[in-house]
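Continuing the series of single-chain predictions for the mutant panel. This is the parent chain; the variants come on the following pages.
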Amino acid sequence: MKGNLRQGFDEYEWRWRLPGNKPQQFDKPAWSGAALDGRVILLHAEQGAGDSIPFARYALLVAAKGGQVILQCQTPLVSLFEQLKGVEQVIARDDPLPAFDVHAPLLSLPRIFKTDLDSIPAPDAYLNADAARTKKFAEMLYSTRLNVGIAWAGKPSHRNDRKRSAGIEPFIDLLGTPDKAFHSLQVGPRSADLVSNGCAGLIRDHGSNISDFADTAALIAALDLVISVDTSVCHLAGALGKPCWVAIPYTPDWRWLMEREDSPWHPSLRLFRQASFGDWPGVFSRLTAALENMISP
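Parent structure:
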């Protein structure tokens, strides 16, 4: 969180000693970062989609070491990650493993590549949305308004979800912003918040059209702006190079660092931080002002 990434990523290997976080076991050695010389490397996802998406960017760096890259990830990410440059094959966690020579977990790659604040691989975009899916969503948008996607909650099982998920309530005032059309990027049980809070008529709910992250990416690509809490949606927007405003709790995830309004991981993101514990009203006051100043097409 302080930006001491080299030391932080070295110490982050201690995660494998935490109860309930046992590493996958393979009969092949872990990769040290040496030249691959044509060998096949298995990169494997860990934790949630909001961790896999930011660190999938390292696949291209791994491929540049001269190897063939296989990426194992969560099933909803497979179609999306098939667009990644440098990856020869994408498999789901439950798929049979193909033959490989070495392996590395995604979140160990920053340590292997000795990443610090000045060397974060941060292209404007490293993922692409499927063109046909994007066209389908684009036809559902408004041509005379700024189309804004919102996501108000992360996965409830996340240990910091109570602090990071603002819920739909503070977003409701945003929905009345003139000349803006709003689209829900929320999937799962929390998408029902639109009906339970009486605001379903103010926003288009795309939940029934989203079956995986490739669909979410296509909708994001068609939009003008995304406003999201700290969940996989904001990382996906950043990976696509889409402008995204992120509502950040007072005690943030380490990736957001401290005090900054930008992200060295995703150049297209703008951070709106709580000034004190639980200060969502302050965050959304600033978001509303910023949104009112945006000019519609």
